[in-house]
Structure formats: structure tokens, C-alpha cells
């Protein structure tokens, strides 16, 4: 079974940056698209970003476009989310996800990580 483990969350001031990382193991990853979701207290989980493992498709939610960057390192089986210009409304638990395509991973991922907390103070 594919396992996804996130790291890199923490507490930062508004305007700051964090690099989140997701390590994948326990399966074949060459044809898996990877993505990030987030869930704030009292709100539904929302899509943040996605990338195909071949790098042909990258998607961002409008709320993070221009501030967040998704990237991958296939040699290490990792996907990162570089966050910049963080706002208090970015505060959430961030989850790594995987699926067969970037379209699917952005809507109904097959695999989920445990989440990492990002808190942005004002």
C-alpha cells in the first residue's frame, strides 16, 4: 500500500514562508499524480495544488496561485509545497494526496497522508 508522510509544518508570521514535504513509499509511483489539500478548523477540505509525476500538468487553487509552488523529486519519491507570502487564512492542516492522474488527485485522491499543521499568525 502507498504511504504518504508530510513534514515541514509550523508556526510562522504573516508574510513568511514554509516548505512542506511529502515522502511516498510502499508502492510504484512513476505514474501517480501528487497533490496537496488543506483543511481549516470548521471548514471542508479544499484543493491546493497538484502535479503529475511526468510534470506535464500542474494545477493551483486560485487562492494560492502566485504564492505557492508545487514540485517533485522522483529520485527521492517526494513532492514539496513551497509556500510564500503566507496569510492568516492559510492556517490549516495540509494533506498530501496521490491518484492516477492530476485531474483525479485534485478531486478524489486515492491515497492520503496524515497531515501537517500550518499556523500563520498576524
Give a quick summary of the entry.
With 122 residues, this protein is mainly beta. It has one helix at 102-105, and strands spanning 3-7, 10-13, 18-25, 33-39, 46-51, 58-60, 68-73, 78-83, 92-99, 111-112, 116-121.
Walk me through the topology.
Blueprint (H helix, E strand, L loop, with lengths): L2 E5 L2 E4 L4 E8 L7 E7 L6 E6 L6 E3 L7 E6 L4 E6 L8 E8 L2 H4 L5 E2 L3 E6 L1
Parallel strand pairs: 2-11
Antiparallel strand pairs: 1-3, 3-8, 4-5, 4-9, 5-6, 7-8, 9-10, 9-11
Describe the structure.
The chain has one helix at 102-105, and strands at residues 3-7, 10-13, 18-25, 33-39, 46-51, 58-60, 68-73, 78-83, 92-99, 111-112, 116-121. It has 122 residues and is mainly beta. The strands form two sheets. Strands 2, 4, 5, 6, 9, 10 and 11 form a seven-stranded mixed beta sheet that branches. Strand 4 (33-39) and strand 5 (46-51) form a beta hairpin. It is globular and about 40 Å long. The termini are far apart.
> What letter string, H or E per element, gives the SSE order?
EEEEEEEEEHEE
> Which stretches are low in confidence, meaning pLDDT under 50 for 5 or more residues running?
none
Overall mean pLDDT: 94
Helix content: under 10%
Beta-strand share of residues = over 45%
Number of contiguous helices: 1
Structural class: mainly beta
Largest sheet features: 7 strands, mixed
Distance between the termini: 40 Å
Shape: globular
Oligomer: single chain
Strand runs, count: 11
Radius of gyration: 13 Å
Amino acid at each position: 500500500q502507498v504511504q504518504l508522510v508530510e513534514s515541514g509544518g509550523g508556526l510562522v508570521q504573516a508574510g513568511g514562508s514554509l516548505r512542506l514535504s511529502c515522502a511516498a513509499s510502499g508502492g510504484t509511483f512513476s505514474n501517480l499524480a501528487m497533490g496537496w489539500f488543506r483543511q481549516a478548523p470548521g471548514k471542508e477540505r479544499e484543493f491546493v495544488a497538484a502535479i503529475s509525476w511526468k510534470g506535464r500538468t500542474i494545477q493551483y487553487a486560485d487562492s494560492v496561485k502566485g504564492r505557492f509552488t508545487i514540485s517533485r523529486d522522483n529520485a527521492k519519491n517526494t513532492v514539496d509545497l513551497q509556500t510564500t507570502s503566507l496569510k492568516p487564512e492559510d492556517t490549516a492542516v495540509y494533506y498530501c494526496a496521490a491518484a492516477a492522474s492530476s485531474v483525479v488527485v485534485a478531486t478524489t485522491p486515492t491515497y492520503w497522508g496524515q497531515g501537517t499543521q500550518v499556523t500563520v499568525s498576524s
